[in-house]
Structure formats: C-alpha cells, structure tokens
Amino acid sequence: MTISTEVATTRHLLHAADTDIAAFFDFFDDNCTFRMGNNPVIHGRDNIATWVAGYLGNVASMEHHIIEEWHAETVAALRVDVTYTMRSGERITLPAVTRTTVENNKITEYLIFIDASPIIAAS
C-alpha cells in the first residue's frame, strides 16, 4: 500500500512534535492556520509557535500513537492517542484527531480535535 504525501507529511509532523519541537514548526507554511480544540484560530507560523510554547509549558514530552489514517486530495486525518508526560512526572493519554492540509510539502492548515482540559488542569 502506498502512503500519500499528505499522510507521510503528517506522520513526520507528529514525529517532530515528539522528538524535536523546533523541527515541528519547519513543517508549517509561513501563513499556516492552526486550531487546537475550542481555542481561537491562530494565523502564521510564528504566532503558532508562541501559542504552542505556552500550551506545552509544563509538558516534558509527548508521544503520538497513530491508530488510523485517512486522506483525500490535499487533506490527511490521523486518529491518535497522545501521551503527555508532565514535568511533575504524571502521564496523561488523550484521544485526538489531527487534520492537516498539505500544499507544496508544507502544512497550510492544522486542526487538532482534542479535549485538552486534563493537560491544562495538570499545568
């Protein structure tokens, strides 16, 4: 089975989130649109990086386990379990779906469907 460019790019994006957060942002187009859960939409790679830094302030590491993948045209959706290890040592695993739009090998839209309230409460 051949993996689409969109799914492969999204897999690499999640791997970077788990291993090298600076490399994670290299996947984004300069004008990328980002939304996590019920938070407001954020426009632009630099604004996304600032928001993510605040969100991950008390997170020591993350690990995404891909359960299911889907794509059509320029869109990929991955259902995952993401385990956050907090700086306190507490581990929290949450279900999520990431939806990316990939154009010219860059993420132009990144939506994360998750209830992140346990991470915020643990911070």
Automatic annotation (TrEMBL):
Can you tell which superkingdom this protein's organism belongs to?
A: Bacteria
SUPFAM superfamilies attached here?
NTF2-like
SnoaL-like domain residues are 17-110
Q: Which InterPro entries match?
A: NTF2-like_dom_sf, SnoaL-like
Name of this chain's protein: Nuclear transport factor 2 family protein
Q: Which organism is it from?
A: Antrihabitans spumae
